[in-house]
Design goal:
It is a single chain. The chain is α+β, with helices and mostly antiparallel strands. It is built from 18 helices and 20 strands. Helix 15 packs across helix 17. The longest helix is centred in the first third of the chain and has 34 residues.
């Protein structure tokens, strides 16, 4: 018979045995930790129809039949000469004790019903526990607890209910505290790994976010062995989220569980429309109880929100802009679909008219991830999405490593983001986005070199460059830098080195190479250009050329 355990936490039998006020003593059966879900008192010969499983079954043996051993029962005789009843010890009418076969069958049926343990009261029928009962409990592996005469069965039941209430209170407090820590983790700069760390801590195990192919994007906690990780990968391939329309037929479960090498495994789908196509939360722990399930459910919701795509009318506008671009529309024609004023029209004054006349203006942000979590492969889009959410834009591009480019309306305020180094361009029209992209890249290099969290493009107007026609300037730049055009690394190194005033160390930091590599590249550049790079006029010419290139 399957156990129908209640949702309340069970009470370990050892806790009841440890209470001095009850005076319980285990005399047979296994000694390992046995969970007790409730208490049931019965003097029925067959209590199975009245058990749900997990009970501490209490009996005084009133229903035990007699046999031919020497176990003694308490008998109540008629009133004595003084008119009061008397209790005496004597053998039963058959001159024997309890039927061994009966007790064997009784214990077997209790085990079949799923009883957690058997409690035998020494009063008012028996002065000691029948030997045949002890042997039967040992034989069937049922813990047998002796209840002393001074302890009524109601005291045992009350102790169990009190312990359950205390355990339930502890469980609720644990769940509440864990939920608060998960919510706080979701608000941190790197929310996905932070949530996983908190979940692994509260589960006392391992929590990981798996990609569509089953690969680990983020992991936290005690990392399990290959067999467990392989089993989790298999679970991840069969789960899928519940459809938005509950009337649809779900072809695969939204979660799956397994037990491997003593570890309880579970996989929960976060995103994707079919098995194996979305993100999956995978957990492995030494236990699995209702509180753990509740915490994992909260983490699943948070991770779904943190990793899910943007949805709403803005998605339709972005899709329309993409389709129009692919079909040949000009960027300035589709740009209005991608942005909207962030302030009411009454506050923008003539700005709305200017936007209508010239098109929206933008800023470009380049970001470099400094966090400790993985930012390569499948994890790069998650890092990019986290930055996009912090900046308040969905127009973001991750190059698959640690750099991210984002496009925002020019009226947005950009502030430093924990875990990121940012470079910000000057406001630009749609036609000037290529130049703004270069500005943001240069600002990011400067921020990395200076070890600052954010750097903005240093404006200052058109300056001397306004005196030169753009076509002539670009032609002159290509002619001057032609020996370097086949080597992007040399062009990038020269740009960083000039921007950082010839500093070898800062250039090496900005380019993420060794300082000797910078020296070698600059020497090679000087040789190809046949130029003296120590001459300030030469540096000025090269800097203007790089700006126009």
């Amino acid at each position: 018979m399957p156990s129908l355990a209640p949702p309340t936490p069970p009470v370990p039998l050892a806790d009841l045995l440890a209470r001095a006020d009850l005076g319980l003593r285990q005399v047979a059966g296994p000694r390992e930790d046995i969970p007790v879900h409730w208490v049931h008192t019965s003097e029925m010969e067959d209590p199975v129809p009245y058990l749900l499983g997990g009970e501490l079954l209490l009996t005084a043996g009133v229903h035990f039949p007699s046999a031919g051993d020497t176990t003694r029962r308490r008998e109540t005789r008629p009133a004595d000469a003084d008119g009061g009843p008397t209790d005496d010890l004597g053998v039963d009418q058959a001159g024997g004790g309890v039927d061994d076969a009966y007790l064997d069958h009784y214990v077997a049926r209790a085990v079949e019903a799923g009883a957690a343990a058997l409690g035998f009261g020494l009063a008012p029928v028996y002065e000691e526990t029948p030997r045949a009962l002890v042997e039967a409990c040992d034989r069937y592996g049922l813990p047998l607890v002796e209840v002393p005469p001074q302890t009524p069965f109601t005291a045992v039941a009350r102790a169990v209910w009190q312990a359950m209430a205390e355990a339930r209170h502890r469980e609720l407090r644990r769940v509440t505290e864990a939920q608060q820590s998960l919510a706080s983790a979701a608000a941190r700069p790197e929310p996905v790994p932070a949530v996983l760390r908190q979940l692994a801590h509260h589960l006392g195990g391992w929590a990981a976010l798996l990609g569509p192919g089953g690969g680990e994007l983020y992991g936290a906690g005690t990392r399990p062995g290959p067999p467990v990780r392989t089993a989790l990968g298999r679970l991840a391939q069969v789960v899928r989220p519940l459809p938005g329309d509950r009337a649809q037929t779900v072809q695969a479960p939204s979660s799956a569980t397994d037990t491997v090498a003593g570890a309880h495994l579970a996989a929960y789908a976060l995103a994707g429309s079919a098995p194996g196509e979305g993100l999956v939360l995978a957990v492995a722990a030494g236990r699995r109880d209702p509180a753990d399930n509740a915490l994992t459910g909260v983490a699943t919701v948070l991770l779904s929100l943190l990793t899910g795509p943007y949805q709403g009318t803005a998605d339709t506008d972005r899709s329309a802009a993409l389709v129009r671009l692919l079909l040949g529309a000009r960027p300035e024609d589709v740009a209005p679909l991608l942005t909207a004023p962030t302030r009411p029209a009454a506050e923008t004054g003539g700005e709305a008219e200017a936007v209508a006349a010239t098109g929206p203006r933008w800023i470009v942000v380049h970001g470099h991830h400094r966090g400790s979590g993985p930012t390569r492969g499948e994890a790069a889009p998650l890092a990019a999405a986290a930055l996009a959410a912090a900046l308040g834009t969905a127009l973001v591009d991750a190059d698959g490593v640690a750099a991210v480019r984002a496009l925002l309306p020019a009226d947005r305020r950009i502030s430093a983001q924990p875990g990121w180094t940012l470079g910000v361009s000057a406001p630009a029209s749609t036609a000037e986005l290529a130049a703004a992209d270069a500005q943001a890249a240069g600002a990011l290099r400067r921020a990395v070199a200076n070890r600052s969290e954010l750097a903005r493009h240093r404006g200052g107007g058109a300056g001397m460059t306004a005196l030169v026609a753009p076509e002539e300037a670009r032609a002159q730049a290509r002619a001057l830098l032609e020996p370097l055009l086949d080597s992007p690394a040399l062009v990038e190194t020269l740009r960083a080195w000039l921007a950082l005033h010839g500093s070898w160390d800062r250039s090496a930091v900005a380019l993420e190479v060794h300082r000797n590599t910078v020296r070698q590249r600059i020497a090679r550049t000087a040789a190809l250009l046949d130029a003296d790079l120590d001459d300030p006029d030469t540096r000025m010419d090269l800097w203007f050329a790089l700006r126009w290139l």
